[in-house]
Amino acid sequence: MSEELAIEVEGLVKTYAGRPPVEAVRGIDLRIRRGECFGVLGPNGAGKTTTIEILEGILSATSGQAKVLGWEWGKDDRKIRELIGVSLQETELSDKLTVEETLSLFRSFYRTGITVAEAIARVGLQDKARTWIKKLSGGQKQRLAVATAIVGDPQVIFLDEPTTGLDPVSRRQLWDIIQGFTNSGRTVLLTTHYMDEAERLCDRIAIIDAGKVIAEGTPHELIRTLGAEHRIELTWDGLAPPELAGRLRDLPGSVNVMLDMHHATLHVDHPHLVLPQLMSILGESKIPLTNLATRHATLEDVFVTLTGRHLDDHQASGAGKPGR
Amino acid sequence: MSEPTADRREFRLHPMLAVTITRLREFTRQPEAIFWVYVFPLLMILVLGSAFRTQPRQQLAFDLVESSGSPQLAQWLGHEGELSWKILPESECRQRLRTGKSQLAVKALAPDGAEIEYWFDPSHPDANALRNAIDGKLQRAAGRRDPLRVSDRPFQESGGRYIDFLVPGLIGMGLMGGGLWGVGFAIVDLRIRKLLKRFIATPMRRSDFLAGIMISRMLFMVPEIMLMFAFSWLLFGVRIHGSWWLLTGLIILGAVQFSGIGLLVASRCKTLEAASGLMNLVMLPMWTLCGIFFSWQRFPEAIHPLIRWLPLTPLIDSLRSVVNEGAGIVEVLPQIGIMAAWAIVSFAIALRIFRWRED
Fold this sequence. Notes:
heterodimer, A: six-stranded mixed sheet, B: D-Maltodextrin-Binding Protein, domain 2, four-stranded mixed sheet
């Protein structure tokens, strides 16, 4: 048992019975340190929810080992449940209960914890304490779901897609709440398919695709693996002259070029060195350019580079969610 | 790993009590649930109790078929208080019999009334009784002497009327509906909303949760049954002849038994449609067979053993014995045994196959 590890996963496999059986998780290893905010990033159906639900003790693994704070699922379940807090995807709390009543129900399940009033204060729902859940907005409901996760004063908090479907203001409020936990030394494991969320909140990230971890590290490390940290994007109308591809590839300082009919992305280390030559190429070939942009590389680029697909590309993913 | 800001000595509700209180809150905030549980049974008592109220004095109503002999019959019958008749043309008499507006038509075949024909449906008990009563009147009027001296003593004590029969039936029906819908539907609803899954991610004991759901169900039921007894006592004078303690025990056992069956029905259902289909499948035979509105003894004897073992039958039978006949615990032991068996078996199976999680 390693003192400093909050979560330890080895060779985790989950296969849902069926014809054909669905291999949702195909061998995942994770080591998450105490006090860390760890993000599991991946497209829909990659196995994020299955992984987190095994760690929450809601699903049992087909094989492999999952430990939380040194306790092992399957042996010390009750101990783990006292120490963790959970917010699931799409839980529908009872419409006709108030925020306060809902939290006092959840509080009753834990031997130790914070007061209901404190849980309400931590997620900023003081004004809504006596309001029926029916009358809360989507963001407020999500904050309440997070409050049910912290009312038992957990050491490890699991949040499954905490901000999916929320407006930007609500998302930012939740980010602040989550940062509050990690600042107080709690461990947070969250899943998301928003790369900006992962970049902003997480100390470390595992990118999951088709039931496997395909990359792991801090957001910065992951982006650095791309080799070139900047992107130059070009969009034009009509057809590009055939020689354009070759000329872009020959540009000094350009690491990689991705090209299709109306669009090109250049991976570069130093945009200010590449841009002047690029401009002259574009001028000579007289392409009707509609857009030229430069930006910093993101986790999305890491994902695209690793898999050739985009994060929100639903159909493309290999292992789907099992039909429930 | 203690945390200075957390108040660890805060008073904490027992989880079972917390679940009970939560369910009670949700229940009292649903007007439709209040209607079905509290108002609907009272309406049933009111409507059925009035429809089948014992008449103060039975009117003997029938038709005389117009013929050459009908004046003679009219003279014999006279118009005493309990008789009510009219002379009508033959076609109209037939029409009224066919449509159930009258149960008996009397036709004189001879002008002096010496030969009489009764028209009625012999399979109908009331029509038979009416035919015999009118026949007696006519025979006596025509000169028959009865050898025995008889006198009538009206006997309409509480305990023997239809309303006395009906109230325990309705209470049994309420307990069945309450157990199946109140426990079964509630659980399927929690499963669909993924709350069941959310709860098992907490240290909550599953037994506390199930017990809380059942206790809350019993608590809604207390006022329901007290209201039903109070209402039928005030309106119809229905009295409880047996022991209140025994009655309470039977009601609790009935509720536990149907909670168990509700739990069993809900143990694997994933949709409300599946749950309501299954519940109707369970309840419909009992609605019809177990003697809520009329005695199950009227069904063919071949199916009596089946009916006797359905869970609603022992409940209603034992309630009736205690309420109407003042039966003691020894007399209802067989029913208690059947109900206890249902309760134990349904809980045992339900807990074994209950679907808490999704895999």
